[in-house]
Design brief:
By secondary structure, the chain is mostly helical. The protein is built from three helices and two strands.
Length: 84
């Protein structure tokens, strides 16, 4: 793990509160932005800001919310199952 610049107590506390409210306080350990994630070579980052569907969860390198990605995959497989 590489050293990253501290984001400041206000931002850290905001992200921590969002992670705890979402039920996963470990998410606060993820990088705080996509740029930092890319520098570190990671796959996920956590902003603590809800996505357009209201999910507070980590995002991937394409800026997609992980919960939205799971919902989209489930819907896709359901459509494929019904199409056959």
């Amino acid at each position: 793990m590489t050293h990253r610049d501290f984001e400041g107590w206000d931002e850290y506390c905001r992200r921590l509160a969002a992670a705890i409210e979402a039920g996963s306080p470990d998410w606060v350990r993820l990088p705080q932005s996509r740029d930092v994630m890319l520098e570190e070579g990671g796959k996920l980052y956590f902003t603590g800001i809800p996505c357009k569907n209201g999910h507070v969860s980590p995002r991937d390198g394409n800026r997609n919310c992980t919960q939205c990605s799971v919902a989209n995959m489930r819907a896709y497989y359901e459509r494929q199952k019904n199409a056959v």
